[in-house]
Amino acid sequence: MKGKKGGNKRKTCMVVGLGRFGKAVCERLTELGESVIGVDKVRARVEELSDVIDLAAQVDATDEDALVKAGAKEADIAVVAIGENIEASILATTILIGLGVPAVTARAQNAIHAKVLARIGASRVYFPERDLGHRVAEHISHPVLAQFTELPGSDFLVGEITPTGEMVGKSLVELEFRNRYNAVVLLVKRGENSFLPRADTVIEETDSLVIAALRQNIGQLAVKIDKSKEKG
After folding, report:
1. CB 197 within 8 A of CB 175
2. Please, what sign has the CA dihedral across residues 61, 66, 68, 74?
3. Among 44, 137, 175, 222, which is most buried by a count of CB atoms within 10 Å?
């Protein structure tokens, strides 16, 4: 088994359920250099990924022995991507946790499903449709958010902004940037140069600021940026 670029050890990831969401997870994990085991009870889905991932197997996710044979005990992380069948999702998650998989991430269909998954020990619970819907709405309300990327495994967003009028000509310490905007400036882009800012760095009108902030705090900054653009 080949290692990833840079010599890092590949993670073995088992993806349970190879519908659109599970397939996308498999494809991206493969692109990122991880070792992927994909299982689904539908043969057509398995065959579609057989030449893409390390192992694709037709398996009933509620059958513990079948999951073990597919390599569940060797997995560093499992993603339960089962869609409509909530019972199968809960059973598969329970089995994988019971088998000692270090981290089990699961897809939820609704709030109750999410609570059950969390209660039985899922490391992380995702709502793909809800999360995407929220992002689309946020981007419509505040277009600047389209420039932000979520840091994997966190609620932090990182993105690039143009300084608002109230920022220009002031240093980060004068602005009390962190307290005022609930954000941190990671990098300043000035012309063809980029540099790590200091507290006394004065923001210029033509600068671009790479910032990080919690998703819940980005909204208020987005409002200020949108208003600044309207004035400009």
Report:
1. no
2. negative
3. 222
Same domain, 189 and 220: yes
Say whether both 41 and 92 belong to one domain: yes
* CA dist., res. 75 & res. 55, Å (int): 12
Contact 14, 79 (CB under 8 A): yes
User: Exposure string (b/e) for 53-79, b if CB count within 10 Å is 16 or more?
Assistant: bbbbbbbebbebebbeebbbeebebbb
Structural domain range at position 60: 11-127
3-state secondary structure 152-198: CCCCEEEEEECCCCCCCCCEHHHHCHHHHHCEEEEEEEECCEEECCC
pTM above 0.85, yes or no: no
Quick: pLDDT tens for 69-121.
Answer: 999 999 999 999 998 899 999 999 999 999 999 999 999 998 899 999 999 99
Residues with Cβ within 8 Å of 99's Cβ and at least 6 positions away in sequence, in order, are 64, 67, 68, 72, 73
Instruction: Tell me which amino acid residue 64 is.
Output: E
Give a yes or no: residue 226 inside a domain. Answer: yes
Token look-up 């505040």 returns 142
Residue 83 lies in a domain: yes
Q: Which of 76, 92, 94 is nearest to 8 (CA)?
A: 76
CATH of the domain at 80: 3.40.50.720
In which residue are the tokens 């277009």 written?
143
Residues 33, 109 within the same domain: yes
Q: What share of the chain is helix, strand, coil (3-state, %, to 5)?
A: 45, 25, 35
